[in-house]
Amino acid sequence: MVSKLNKVRKHVSKKKGAKMNSLHENSRDAQRLRKASVRDERVLKTVSTKEKANHHWLDRVSFFQDNLPDTLHPMEMSRVQDLIEEWLSRHDEEVATLKSERRPGRPATTRQTLLEQAIHAERLEYESGFWMPNLRDEESLIKLDAWKGDWLSLANLRFSRVEKGGGVKDSQFPPRGSS
Predict the structure, then answer these.
(1) Which of 21, 45, 65, 114 is the most exposed place for a label (fewest CB within 10 A)?
(2) What does pTM read for this prediction?
(3) How far apart, in whole angstroms, are the C-alpha atoms of residue 64 and residue 87?
(4) Within the chain, which residues score under 70 in pLDDT?
(5) CATH architecture assignment, domain 57-171
(6) Where are the domains of the chain?
(7) Alpha helix segments (H runs only) across 129-179
(8) H or E stretch including 42?
């Protein structure tokens, strides 16, 4: 992403020449530089917030990409559900370790509480429909295998919601509610 500050700095330096550090505190050029700096900080904060929010979904898709079969063929529902259960149990060892390290009568650590909340939320999602790449379609498997790990290229993949009872519904990207 091109920085607005760099553009403004370049423009001001062309105008002022070598006297860049001799700007008056409240001059137009100094105000432009301050505004551009504040804008760049705001944009970086927004981008990092979005990346942090999307990281969970990227991890989920990369897990299913890593567990694709060697020969790309549509998976059976039992195998898909086994993969989902494997994904849901990924924090179980850490939670058990945190519980065993805690002295009796002491409250749970923040990390343990957060992990338990995440596990509970994912289990509830699995009951109503677990959002994941469509592993029952050969074209989707080929696209998932070629996926490079970036957020924007997820739009090319097909997604579905798999219920614990075995029901499958097509879904959309990005995941919203129970779509």
Answers:
(1) 21
(2) 0.75
(3) 9
(4) 1-2, 16-21, 177-179
(5) Up-down Bundle (1.20)
(6) 57-171
(7) 138-146
(8) helix 28-66
End-to-end CA distance of the chain: 32
Secondary structure class of 170 (helix, strand, coil): strand
Cα angle 159, 68, 54; round to 5: 45
**Distance, CA of 10 to CA of 99 (rounded, Å):** 56
Q: Burial, 161: exposed, middle or buried (Cβ in 10 Å; 0-12, 13-18, 19+)?
A: buried
User: Residue written as tokens 């429909």?
Assistant: 129
Which whole-number Å values give the CA distances from 34 to 5, 30, 46, in the listed order?
Answer: 8, 6, 19
Cα separation, 179 vs 175, whole angstroms: 7
CA neighbours closer than 13 Å in the CB half-sphere of residue 39: 14
The structure tokens 């897990």 sit at: 63
Q: How far apart are CA 8 and CA 30, in angstroms?
A: 10
Residue 111: in which H helix or E strand, if any? helix 110-128
d(C-alpha 15, C-alpha 164), whole Å: 66
